């Protein structure tokens, strides 16, 4: 079943049924101020940090879903009937409904009884506010006396404290109302430097700031007392639960409409004005901004700027293929999701509360891989910021807090795959930009002043961290976990009677090894060897780095090979995981994907054998599952992975993040049919027709899809903020379509379905533009016969770095 459709020309997803299987959301804002908008107007907003600067309250795991936070109501003053044009919170059935999620904005329109309401939510570029442009329209043949009510439910800044410290918060809520502006100044008495505001462009006919007065003592947001009575109470919150609500009365003749603008914004006083008079907010800082953006003309200009921003961002890479679902994902939705994910990592969605995770070291470094061509300067800054939370021993804090930039000491390090992602992302940045100067940038360790070293030294410490921490099979120690945070092979019972301690092994010594990190090390250090050929800024030579990679590849090919696939790991007692020796968890996708991308054992057929095993044992109609067979009982030897029911999350689901590693490996092997087949299995646009099964948004990737062992096979969870987005973009653009940056230029090496006769790629690269047409006259899956640039044949599959600001026509003939 479908709940909407793609409007490719407008670059929008149009939802025509408000009761989608899950709230289908969009993001507004891309810098400091960020908001989420669902297809029924729900969601929340924050400034910089989703925990400590939360403006709007949001209830996770609530029934009904996605209510509170934001709201709009239109009421007929004569009949007393009311509805929400966004469907929620009133939940009155609508005669007509449409929600359009676009790039950085959402427009929702609802009509009932010949009255229509429409609202567009967006953040004006560079501003710390969101605008709601609301239009109320009378489509009847008689005049109508209507009332428009707005609603925001304020969160009292620290979202954890807001949901737990009621004995304090019920006493601290403070607001102030001046003209049509409601100021939320809770905490201002204490901090005296920040506040929120909710402004209205119309002369208001009433307001409310106390939730109990607006909703009623025992009513809900679907039938608030103010809407039942038809009149705001002009309540002023003194503690309890502050809100912001405006009442605007509108009299409309037949066919007439009226626009009302609401602004929800944040302001932080300059540091030198921090010690303002207690409880007295400095409105002069925001008065000019409020006046400017309550003017529709200013909003028109800002919205045009927003559209131009996204047109520019997406123009760097556009494709035209025989597959329309590929085109809409590559040209619009995948890079859009990549940008959101790069901004937020895994911190704030309808599945990530923004309360604990912060910005992940591993997560964010992978996110950079897909946005380097869009905004290399921002990616460069993010890489350097992440290097600041690298530990002195070469490891890394697993997460950092975006507001402070400090590593999360509660979680710390010990995720032994983390260091290599810094190497991989830095190498990818240099390939895209040619900018080796990033290696000379001085960066501290652990955010500690006085510890500065060039980024090149940080990469060297990352390499040494893995090389110095190897186990009995000469494979890297897994630490707390590697990519799979739930595979905890150094977990042991505290009860001696239940422990696995033996005379031969001391359980307090971490001995578990990761084949995955071994493959990752080979992949990353070979990238470092290539980089060493380009610059003398690295501490060691290309030959030395290649020696390190070869040593690790030998160890992986020896101890990591199970006969038909790569093993996953060894536990503390040197027993293999992901082996035919195991009853459960015999084969894992992660190690096979990473070792496959690294090409370990390719010459003697190991990689192809591993891919055949993955296809036979892990591939399902909904994607490639993490492992099989799934674990059926909790087993402390393997840790949290076995705490999930079979088929869900880390225990045998389609963990979509890993699927592109198999796509890339198959493409490198020249198996274009297989690579593209896997791409389509988890492609959101290709799953639109089964939205009632898939449940999450058909325009963005989800983290997981329930595997065949689950009762809800095919159901997705955790959409939007996932490394799936970046890796799928890399897989389809760089390895299936095959246009990827390298140190000397753009490599063209497609691996596609044989029935594709032609496709084209528009690619901007280092100051030049390349219009690439790939022809496939012989119906092959891979292989390039010749490459022409501006009519001249070159003796290479690498388009040279021309960098001349010109447009160049490139013709590639496969064969």
UniProtKB/TrEMBL annotation:
Chain ranges of the Glycoside hydrolase family 65 C-terminal domain: 740-781
Domain of life: Archaea
Alphabetically ordered keywords of this record: Glycosyltransferase, Transferase
Pfam family, one: Glyco_hydro_65C
The keyword Transferase is assigned to this record: yes
SUPFAM superfamilies: Galactose mutarotase-like, Six-hairpin glycosidases
The keyword Transferase is annotated on this UniProt entry: yes
InterPro entries: 6-hairpin_glycosidase_sf, 6hp_glycosidase-like_sf, Gal_mutarotase_sf_dom, GH65_N, GH94_catalytic, GH94_Enzymes, Glyco_hydro_65_C, Glyco_hydrolase_94_b-supersand
Organism name: Halorhabdus tiamatea SARL4B
GO biological process: carbohydrate metabolic process
Name this polypeptide is given: Cellobiose phosphorylase protein
This enzyme's EC code(s): 2.4.1.20
Domain Glycosyl hydrolase 94 catalytic: 309-738
């Amino acid at each position: 079943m479908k709940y909407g459709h793609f409007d490719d020309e407008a670059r929008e997803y149009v939802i025509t049924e408000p009761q989608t299987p899950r709230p289908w959301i969009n993001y507004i804002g891309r810098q400091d101020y960020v908001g989420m908008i669902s297809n029924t107007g729900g969601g929340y907003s924050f400034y910089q940090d989703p925990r400590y600067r939360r403006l709007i309250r949001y209830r996770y795991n609530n029934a009904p879903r996605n209510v509170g936070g934001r709201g709009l109501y239109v009421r007929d003053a004569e009949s007393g009937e009311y509805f929400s044009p966004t469907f929620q919170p009133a939940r009155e059935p609508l005669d007509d409904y449409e929600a359009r999620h676009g790039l950085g904005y959402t427009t929702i329109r609802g009509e009932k009884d010949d009255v229509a309401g429409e609202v567009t939510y967006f953040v004006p570029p560079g501003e710390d506010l969101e605008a709601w442009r609301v239009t109320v329209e009378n489509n009847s043949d008689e005049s109508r006396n209507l009332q428009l009510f707005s609603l925001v439910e304020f969160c009292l800044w620290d979202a954890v404290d807001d949901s737990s410290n009621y004995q304090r918060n019920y006493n601290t809520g403070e607001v102030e109302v001046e003209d049509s502006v409601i100021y939320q100044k809770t905490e201002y008495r204490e901090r005296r430097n920040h506040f929120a505001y909710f402004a209205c462009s119309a002369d208001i006919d009433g307001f409310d700031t106390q939730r109990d007065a607006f909703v009623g003592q025992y009513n809900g947001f679907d039938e608030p007392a103010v809407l039942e009575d038809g009149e705001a109470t002009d309540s002023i919150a003194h503690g309890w639960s502050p809100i912001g609500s405006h009442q605007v009365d509108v009299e409309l003749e037949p066919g007439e409409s009226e626009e009302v603008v609401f602004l929800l914004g944040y302001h932080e006083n300059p540091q030198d004005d921090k010690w303002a008079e207690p409880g007295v907010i400095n409105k002069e800082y925001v008065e000019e901004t409020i006046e400017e953006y309550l003017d529709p003309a200013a909003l028109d200009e800002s919205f045009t700027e927003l559209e131009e921003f996204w047109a520019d961002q997406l123009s760097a890479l556009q494709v035209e293929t025989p597959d329309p679902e590929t085109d809409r994902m590559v040209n619009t939705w995948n890079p859009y999701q990549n940008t959101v994910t790069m901004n937020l990592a895994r911190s704030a969605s309808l599945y990530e509360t923004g309360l604990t995770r912060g910005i992940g070291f591993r997560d964010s470094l992978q996110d950079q891989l897909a946005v380097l061509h869009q905004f290399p300067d921002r990616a460069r800054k993010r890489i350097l910021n992440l290097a600041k939370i690298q530990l002195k021993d070469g490891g890394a804090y697993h997460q950092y807090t975006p507001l402070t930039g400090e590593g999360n000491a509660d979680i710390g390090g010990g995720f032994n795959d983390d260091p290599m992602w810094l190497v991989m992302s830095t190498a990818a940045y240099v390939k895209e930009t040619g900018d080796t100067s990033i290696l000379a940038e001085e960066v501290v360790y652990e955010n500690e002043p006085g510890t500065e070293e060039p980024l090149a030294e940080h990469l060297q410490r990352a390499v040494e961290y893995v090389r110095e921490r190897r186990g009995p099979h000469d494979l890297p120690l897994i630490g707390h976990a590697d990519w799979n945070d739930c595979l905890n092979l150094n977990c042991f019972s505290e009860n001696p009677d239940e422990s696995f301690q033996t005379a031969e092994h001391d359980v307090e010594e971490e001995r578990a090894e990761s084949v995955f990190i071994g493959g990752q090390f080979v992949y990353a250090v070979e990238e470092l060897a290539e980089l060493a050929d380009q610059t003398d800024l690295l501490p060691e030579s290309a030959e030395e780095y290649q020696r390190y990679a070869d040593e690790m590849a030998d160890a992986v090919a020896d101890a990591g090979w199970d006969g038909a696939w790569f093993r996953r790991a060894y536990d503390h007692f040197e027993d293999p995981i992901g082996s035919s020796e195991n009853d459960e968890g015999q084969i894992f996708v992660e190690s096979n994907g990473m070792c496959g991308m690294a090409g370990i054992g390719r010459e003697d057929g190991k990689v192809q054998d591993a891919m055949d095993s993955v296809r036979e044992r892990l591939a399902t109609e909904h994607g490639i599952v993490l492992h099989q067979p799934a674990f059926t009982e909790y087993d402390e030897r393997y840790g949290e992975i076995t705490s999930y029911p079979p088929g869900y999350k880390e225990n045998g689901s389609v963990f979509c993040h890993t699927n592109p590693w198999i796509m890339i490996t198959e493409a490198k092997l020249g198996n274009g049919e297989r690579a593209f087949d896997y791409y389509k299995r988890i492609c959101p646009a290709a799953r639109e027709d089964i939205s009632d099964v898939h449940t999450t948004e058909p325009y963005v990737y989800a983290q997981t899809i329930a595997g065949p062992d689950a009762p809800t096979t095919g159901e997705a969870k955790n959409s939007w903020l996932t490394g799936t987005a970046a890796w799928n973009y890399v897989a389809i653009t760089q390895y299936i379509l095959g246009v990827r940056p390298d140190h000397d230029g753009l490599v063209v090496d497609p691996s596609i379905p044989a029935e594709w006769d032609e496709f084209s790629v528009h690619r901007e690269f280092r100051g030049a533009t390349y219009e690439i047409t790939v022809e496939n006259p012989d119906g092959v899956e891979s292989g390039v016969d010749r490459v022409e640039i501006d009519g001249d044949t070159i003796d290479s599959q690498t388009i040279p770095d021309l960098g001349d600001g010109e447009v160049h026509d490139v013709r590639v003939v496969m064969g």
